[in-house]
Amino acid sequence: MKKLACVDFDGSEFEDSYWNELDSFTEKRVLVATAAEVPQDTDGLLVKLGATYNKDMMAKLPNLKYIGMLGTGFGGIDSGFAKSKGITVTNIADYATEGVTEFTFGILLEYLRDLGKARSQAKEGNYSDDFSGSEIKGKKFGVIGLGDIGVRTARLALAFGAEVSYWSRNRKKDAEDAGIKYRDLDDLINESDIVTLNLALTTETEGIITAARVGKFKSNAIFINPSPMELIDFSALTIRLKKDDMIFMLDHSDEMSEVQLGQLRPLKNAIVYPAIAYLTHEATELKKRIFIDNVKNYVAGTPTNNVTSTSLTAAKAEHAP
Amino acid sequence: MKKLACVDFDGSEFEDSYWNELDSFTEKRVLVATAAEVPQDTDGLLVKLGATYNKDMMAKLPNLKYIGMLGTGFGGIDSGFAKSKGITVTNIADYATEGVTEFTFGILLEYLRDLGKARSQAKEGNYSDDFSGSEIKGKKFGVIGLGDIGVRTARLALAFGAEVSYWSRNRKKDAEDAGIKYRDLDDLINESDIVTLNLALTTETEGIITAARVGKFKSNAIFINPSPMELIDFSALTIRLKKDDMIFMLDHSDEMSEVQLGQLRPLKNAIVYPAIAYLTHEATELKKRIFIDNVKNYVAGTPTNNVTSTSLTAAKAEHAP
Predict the structure, then answer these.
(1) Residues A225, A246: Cα–Cα separation, whole Å
(2) Contact check, Cβ <8 Å, A132/B160
(3) Of B103, B134, B137, the CB nearest to A113
(4) A115 and B273 in contact (C-beta within 8 Å)?
């Protein structure tokens, strides 16, 4: 590359060794505060999650050939237009698969065994064992969406000894061979003791957990959502939760409104965590590594995580939340 | 049986259906408050955890043929003398394998992701994502003692993607075939990021985590003990913990003294839970079922969980904590 512009980066994002590595792929690198400041002769752009690049903005940069997104979602970038202009757009998929999966089991076990209460009680010198937990083993465990995180969640649930089912747009033979049973979405919700929602938000999946489906959860079901809230009919969910006959756990997504958070807060069966499911040291390191490697592989002529490649776009829509 | 005496039972221990089932195995059943009240012509005794039956006490009951322990530990019963007199002693092993294993991963994930803090912070409306967790995947995970709970813990750690090693008195080919590596005890402690202690307390294992071994834990190691504290040199452990360079997590055993608990309480790197590792609905039900089945199988001439059978005694000493 001749000129790589990093928009809204201040240098603190990476250690020097990563910046040095990036510099080896380009003749010049500039850090700019906003898209408006990107030099006209830029051929590479590195951008952050939430960045917007429409047709007009891209048209103003005639040399532009590469946009690297420091994150998974790239909805703000007109990737169709980018493709038509031969601009490669890359993102970072799957860096947080383990982090999100381990978080899911962490919050599930925390709830099932009331660990927070047990720990704080003991810290105060009260060692009463008046607790009655239950086990993941033997539970009917339903996974909605069998992308990377869904598969990992389903397989770990199987290792815990749960009876695992899934629904996904396409059947997954590998998972079925491992003992993960395919179920119709309505049946899956209706039969499971524990349900995890692991879909990406697309026009097809938005609102997929309709009011009718919200009504199908078993009494005392545990519904875990580490994915965008837009997948669920929120109004129907709050009405159901007010009946206090099921548990809803979530890692709140940045897109959730204060109004939604405010509606969940008073409900004791809505267990909300900050947006930390993907936040692990390992995921953070892997994310940086993939981001740099995407640039390296693009420069080498073998782009990775190329969302403007048709086959990958389709695969990704089904994969990462 | 002709007369079954239940010592220190008040009837609330089981649902009626279980009592009815027990009654079908004996001509008469009596509930007595203490061992002194056991009728002289009793041929069966049902006792609770911690019950003491020495030679003299057994000698006073000439018809005694069966002692059923409602628990795993049977140290208070002179099983050697019982055996010499043809008295069958049964206990309840392994009913809590899943409960203890799931608890272990629950408290580990709670610590690694700071879930308690995250949850309570969000409940107060603070959704800050200033958290930096780490993952079980990729960690060196050492299991000391490969009985039922140890094996289950090691296999689940493997499913999480950890690099799992074990030490046990005897090599375990099945575990090694699954990818769980054997290590010398000192090396295991010295190399592992996470160590779980899953040994039964016997004269051989008491104090097995010596002061020297306490000194071998890696800096920042996480040491989880869901087994009796007598396995560890407690004084050396508290000295090491005061250096604040490792984490110790435990499900406090009923045998721990107030003095020990009081010494751990001020240490922020000693994370103590009440004795709840084995407390799940499923384990409680399974425990009752095994207890009743032990009587049933004894009466049928095919005793189960017979701790007076030599081969089983040896196996059990290595197994259940």
Answers:
(1) 14
(2) no
(3) B103
(4) yes
Give the DSSP letter string of B64-107. Answer: --EEEEESS--TTB-HHHHHHTT-EEE---STTHHHHHHHHHHH
In angstroms, the CA B102 to CA A156 distance is 12
Average pLDDT score, chain A: 93
Chain-centroid distance, C-alpha A277: 8
Contact A43, A64 (CB under 8 A): yes
Distance separating alpha carbons of residues B99 and B156, to the nearest angstrom: 13
Query: What does the pLDDT read at residue A156?
Result: 98
Reported as a single tens digit per residue, the pLDDT across A13-63 is 999 999 999 999 999 999 999 999 999 999 999 999 889 999 999 999 999
Using the predicted structure, report yes or no on whether residue A209 has a pLDDT greater than 50: yes
**Contact status, residue A23 vs residue A29, Cβ threshold 8 Å:** yes
From B104's Cα to the closest Cα of chain A, the distance in A is 10
- In chain A, the largest separation of any two C-alpha atoms, in whole Å, equals 70
Average pLDDT, chain B: 93
Which regions of chain B are under pLDDT 70?
Answer: 254, 310-321
Cα A25 from chain centroid (whole Å):
29
> Considering CB atoms only, which of A132, A135, A276 is closest to B98?
A135
From its phi and psi, is residue B77 left (phi > 0), alpha (psi between -120 and 50) or beta? Answer: beta
Q: How far apart are CA A123 and CA B121, in angstroms?
A: 18
Is residue A44 within 8 Å of A3, Cβ to Cβ? yes
Indicate yes or no: CB of A109 within 8 angstroms of CB of B112. Answer: no
Tokens found for residue B245: 């360079």
Which among B120, B134, B281 has CB closest to A132? B281
In chain A, alpha helices (H) = 16-23, 55-59, 79-84, 97-113, 115-123, 148-159, 173-177, 185-191, 211-214, 234-242, 258-264, 281-299, 310-318
Give CA–CA dist A19/A3, Å, rounded: 14
Measured between beta carbons, which residues in chain B are less than 8 angstroms from residue A274?
118, 121-122, 126-129, 131
- Residue in this structure with the two tokens 């435990």, named with its chain if needed: B250
* ipTM (interface predicted TM): 0.87
Lookup: tokens for B313? 């005694």
Q: Give A306's contacts (C-beta < 8 A, 6+ positions apart).
A: A88, A89, A90, A298, A312
> Tell me, what's the pLDDT at B310?
56
A134-157: pLDDT as tens digits: 999 999 999 999 999 999 999 999
pTM over 0.95: no
Nearest to A42 by CA among A17, A24, A68, A16: A68
